[in-house]
Write a structure and sequence with these properties.
The protein contains 11 helices and 10 strands. With 285 residues, it is α/β, with parallel strands linked by helices. The strands form 2 sheets. Strands 2, 3, 4, 5, 6, 7, 8 and 9 form an 8-stranded mixed beta sheet that branches. Helix 3 runs antiparallel to helix 11 (263-277). The radius of gyration is 18 Å and the shape is globular. The two termini are 26 Å apart.
Length: 285
C-alpha cells in the first residue's frame, strides 16, 4: 500500500469518532502514533473516541487496548446482565472507577501537563445540542465528562456534568470535524470506525414515549441522529476527495459490533488500525 503523507502544523487536529467496541480500531491507530511520538496540537473525541483519546493524552500506550481486550476477557463487563441489574449495558463502576483508580491508574499529572488541547463531546439532555469540554486539572470532572460522552441512549443512564443531564456525544456530533475547523484547526486527520461509503438507515430512530419525557430536545436529537451522521460522513468524504482532510478508517465493512465480546474480532480490528496508521508518513513544521 502506498504511504500517505501528513504534515503536522499548529493548525492540525485529530478527530476521533466513537462506535463502542469498534473503537478498538482507533486504539490501534493511537498506539501506533504513540510508538512513533506523533502528537497533534488539538484532539477531540466522542464517546469511545473520548475514552481512547484520554490514554493518548496521558501517553499510556497499551492502556486502552488493555481495557477493551484484557479487561473484557477477565470481567466480561458488557451485556444484558448489567442492564438488568444496574440499568446500564456496561459496568460503568468498573470502567470509570475501579479501572482508572486501581487496575490501571490513569496518569492525571501527564494529562494536566500536556500542551495539547483535548476536547470531549457530550449531548445536553436539556438542549439536545453538543457540548464540548476541555478539562485537565480536575480528575473527578474528567471522569464525569468521559462517562457522559459514553452514555448511550436507552441502555445507559443519564449522566451529569456540572449538574446538567447529559448523554452520548454521538447523538449530536458524531464526527466533530466542523468543531475543529470552527476553532481554526483546518489541517485535520479524522479517525473513523466505519468503512468508506457507510451510511446509517435513512429512517429516524424511534424513541419510546417513556424515555426522556422531561427532555423533548434530546428526543428530537436522537430521532435526527441518523440524518446528522450521514451528513457528516458525506462532508468527510467530500473534503477527503478535495484533499482537505486525511482519513483513517477500516478498509472493509466492520464485523465488530458496538458491544462486541469476540476477542479475536477485536484483536484483528486493533491490528488493522495499527497497520493502517503505520502507512502514514508524518512531517512537522
Amino acid at each position: 500500500m502506498k504511504k500517505k503523507k501528513f504534515k503536522i502544523t499548529e493548525k492540525s487536529g485529530l478527530i476521533l469518532e466513537g462506535g463502542g467496541m469498534r473503537g478498538i480500531f482507533t486504539i490501534g491507530v493511537l498506539d501506533n502514533f504513540m510508538d512513533r511520538g506523533i502528537r497533534f496540537p488539538y484532539i477531540i473525541g466522542v464517546s469511545a473516541g473520548a475514552c481512547n483519546g484520554l490514554s493518548y493524552m496521558s501517553h499510556q500506550r497499551g492502556r486502552a487496548k488493555y481495557a477493551d481486550i484484557d479487561l473484557l476477557k477477565e470481567y466480561d463487563y458488557i451485556g444484558l446482565k448489567y442492564l438488568l441489574t444496574k440499568g446500564n449495558i456496561m459496568d460503568f463502576d468498573l470502567l470509570f472507577h475501579t479501572f482508572p483508580e486501581k487496575i490501571s491508574p490513569y496518569d492525571y499529572e501527564k494529562l494536566a501537563n500536556s500542551p495539547e488541547h483535548y476536547e470531549m463531546v457530550t449531548t445536553s439532555c436539556v438542549t439536545g445540542k453538543a457540548c464540548y469540554f476541555e478539562e485537565k486539572n480536575n480528575p473527578k470532572r474528567v471522569i464525569e465528562i468521559v462517562k457522559a460522552s459514553s452514555s448511550l441512549p436507552f441502555v445507559c443512564p443519564i449522566a451529569y456534568v456540572d449538574g446538567e443531564p447529559m448523554l452520548d456525544g454521538g447523538i449530536s456530533d458524531s464526527i466533530p470535524l466542523e468543531r475543529a475547523i470552527s476553532l481554526g484547526y483546518d489541517n485535520n486527520l479524522v479517525v473513523l470506525t466505519r468503512n468508506i461509503g457507510y451510511r446509517k438507515p435513512q429512517k429516524a430512530t424511534k424513541v419510546p414515549f417513556f424515555f426522556y419525557r422531561k427532555y423533548p430536545n434530546v428526543k428530537d436529537a436522537i430521532r435526527g441522529r441518523n440524518a446528522m451522521y450521514n451528513r457528516q460522513m458525506e462532508l468527510v468524504e467530500r473534503m477527503e476527495n478535495e484533499g482537505r482532510v486525511e482519513v483513517l478508517r477500516p478498509l472493509k465493512p466492520v464485523e465488530v459490533g458496538r458491544i462486541e465480546r469476540d476477542i479475536d474480532k477485536l484483536l484483528a480490528l486493533y491490528q488493522e488500525g495499527y497497520d493502517l496508521a503505520a502507512q502514514i508518513e508524518f512531517e512537522k513544521e
